[in-house]
Design goal:
The chain is mainly beta and about 625 residues long. It has 5 helices and 41 strands. Among the domains are: about 180 residues, Thrombin, subunit H (Beta Barrel); about 90 residues, Lipocalin, CATH 2.40.128. It has a 5-stranded antiparallel β-sheet. Strands 2-35-36-37-38 form a 5-stranded mixed β-sheet, with no helix packed on it. Strand 14 and strand 15 form a beta hairpin.
């Protein structure tokens, strides 16, 4: 492919000139000033997860105490289930879904239960969040909007907890339409909160990662009626831009290329930013030669019509399961005397791209870097991958056994050296492809560097703050039924003991980073998490984490995503750890902060353990903190 075509497959802004004027005309909204509530997963329209509250400060945060606790299990005898839910707070009402098939409304100041909506038997809400719609007049009241494990989209009245009588069939529509399912019976659902713009709800999708299956298309629905408004084909069809990045028939019935994490909507411009994942199967592309748009891309759409505006492909022809898992974040970059409206995008590689949110053009130079070629039969890996000059990757990208093996304890070192010898693992570099004749310890592993929680942004400092971890994968490809190749060994296995997870590379195993977006430099990095099973002198290793941070105008970052069951607070300017509170269970979720009717600032987090980090499951609590 020529350099010109390759550049078009990385980012394309040509459609913006024709389509952007229409977006401006369609959007009469201004970005709402961030308030004292927490109305969406990202808190504000930019998804910055930045609160203006200042009552809790670096000076008094160490005094935080538990104000109240809410237990999610319907009865004490109910088996505990893990949750990755982030609550919402609007006014003085808190809303969240539970893994027990319930949507709960609480008094946000006292924790008193207001109402509970029970989903039909066997149906549970999306595991990572629900959305709030302020409604339109008396006919369409404020509502909660959420997907379910059965592939439905439901709307309920935020005040009463009763299903909407105007949306679909008594408040529900099926997302498993014939156009999406294509005759397949695979599981299709929503795993994260949808996006909302005016009266349009934009639905994401969780579909299988195999050669054939349901579509990963993104759709917009009318929140007043439940009628389909638009569909964006995540894999372009004949005649659509990007179709030529797939081989003939290689695009048909292809699953994956879906938004399974959160999307972000620019309310001022009426633009939705969609982070797409890899095609199925996600570790071999011998039947899909080409760059494969819009896989591994961030795509900007007109939120009202679903019309394509621009895209930036962050990974060409993905064969690593490195989905775009973090929600895009809208922020301003101050560079060369200008303020640039930007979108921060990151996938599992932990490579942060800062793009002009109007055009999709990189703010810092991006180079096409040559990468190792795949030797797997039938595969044609892409010869280069986009890597920005700034900032550097925020997680480990390689492993060399001679220098990188862990030496935390003598026993640890001996185990890891034997693991490398037994599996005959060969070293890896950035974008090392999987092999079919040997095993590789690759970084980041299949779990990625960052996870779905994403980052937070402090606009005063210009710091993008995010937690990442270094979990390697031992993997090898082998032939699978149907003529394709798949991974033969379990991912995330480059460690000692399934439960303790003592990584076989030198620490840190988990970090918290702050990137100065105005310079592209790392402002600070601190080790995040401790390994309690190790001797006290060597416990400061860092730990894997799922869930994200939030920040406040007082200069604090709150985070409780690590598998060591700690809730922490950090100084935004320096990264200094100011609070460490031991929870009963790990919180693989994202906290929120809000102001109660008593004038106090609260910080809330759901902690149940569980998730693929396999920290002990058994918790069921929402814990809320405040100053004494």
């Amino acid at each position: 492919m020529s350099k010109t075509n390759l550049r078009a497959n990385v980012f394309r802004a040509g459609a913006v000139a024709a389509g952007f004027a229409g977006v401006v005309a369609l959007s009469g909204l201004a970005i709402a000033a961030p308030g004292e509530d927490w109305p969406t997963y990202g808190h504000d329209d930019g998804g910055m997860r930045y609160s203006p509250l200042t009552q809790i400060t670096p000076q008094n945060v160490s005094k935080l105490k538990v104000a109240w606790t809410y237990h999610m299990k319907p009865t004490p005898e109910t088996r505990a289930l893990p949750s990755q839910m982030t609550p919402l707070v609007i006014g003085n009402t808190m809303y969240f879904g539970t893994p027990y098939g319930r949507i709960v409304s609480l008094d946000a100041t006292t924790g008193k239960e207001i109402w509970v909506y029970q989903l039909p038997e066997g149906e549970r809400p999306s595991v990572r969040g629900i959305a709030y719609w302020p409604g339109e007049g008396s006919k369409y009241p404020a509502s909660l909007v959420f997907g379910t494990t059965q592939g439905n989209l439901r709307v309920i009245n935020a005040k009463t907890g009763k299903p909407s009588e105007t949306f679909g069939d008594h408040g529900a529509i099926t997302l498993r339409t014939p156009e999406i399912m294509r005759g397949y019976t695979d599981n299709y659902a929503m795993s994260s909160a949808p996006g909302i713009y005016k009266n349009i709800v934009i639905t994401n999708a969780s579909n299988p990662e195999k050669p054939k299956g349901p579509s990963g298309d993104t759709r917009g629905w009318d929140l007043r009626t439940g009628k389909l408004v638009w569909t964006f084909h995540s894999i372009p069809r004949p005649g659509e831009f990007g179709h030529d990045t797939w081989p003939e028939n290689g695009w048909q019935d292809r699953p994956g290329v879906n938004v399974w994490s959160m999307m972000t909507v620019d309310a001022k411009r009426g633009i939705a930013y969609l982070p797409y994942g890899e095609p199925g199967p996600d570790r071999w592309g011998g039947d899909r030669h080409g760059a494969n748009l819009f896989a591994n891309s961030i795509v900007a759409l007109n939120a009202t019509t679903g019309k394509y505006l621009w895209h930036f492909q962050m990974l060409h022809h993905g064969i690593w399961d490195h989905d775009n898992d973090t929600p895009p974040m809208l922020l301003d970059v101050k560079k060369d005397g200008k303020i640039i409206p930007a979108v921060a995008a990151m996938n599992k590689t932990a490579i942060l791209f800062l793009l002009d949110r109007v055009t999709g053009k990189p703010i810092y130079e991006v180079k096409e870097v040559p990468v190792p070629a795949s030797k797997v039969p039938g595969e044609q890996s892409w010869p280069t991958q986009p890597v920005p000059v700034k900032p550097p990757p925020l997680a480990r990208q390689s492993f060399t056994a001679a220098t990188d093996v862990a030496t935390v304890t003598p026993e640890h070192k001996a185990f890891c050296e034997n693991l490398i010898k037994t599996h005959k693992l060969h070293d890896s570099v950035m974008f090392s492809p999987l092999t079919h004749d040997s095993q590789i310890a690759r970084f980041p592993g299949s779990g990625g560097g960052p996870e779905w929680g994403g980052g937070t942004f402090d606009p005063k400092l210009g710091y993008y703050i995010i937690n990442t971890h270094d979990m390697g994968s031992i993997e090898q490809l082998e032939p699978k039924p149907g003529g394709f190749w798949g991974s033969t060994t379990g991912p995330d296995s480059f460690f000692i003991d399934e439960d303790k997870k003592l990584m076989c590379q030198q620490p840190p195993w988990g970090s918290l980073y702050a990137v100065n977006v105005n310079t592209g430099d790392i402002a600070w990095r601190v080790t995040l998490g401790v390994t309690d099973s190790l001797p006290e002198a060597v416990r400061n290793t860092g730990r894997p984490s799922i869930g994200g941070p939030i920040s406040t105008a007082s200069g604090l970052t709150f985070l409780a995503a690590t598998d060591d069951s700690r809730f922490r607070a950090f100084d935004n300017a320096t990264g200094k750890e100011l609070l460490t509170y031991k929870l009963d269970h790990s919180a693989h979720t994202t906290p929120i902060t809000y102001k109660g009717t008593d004038g106090k600032q609260y910080v809330a987090i759901i902690a149940t353990g569980g998730s693929f980090l396999r920290s002990p499951t058994g918790g069921d609590s929402l814990t809320v903190f405040s100053l004494p």
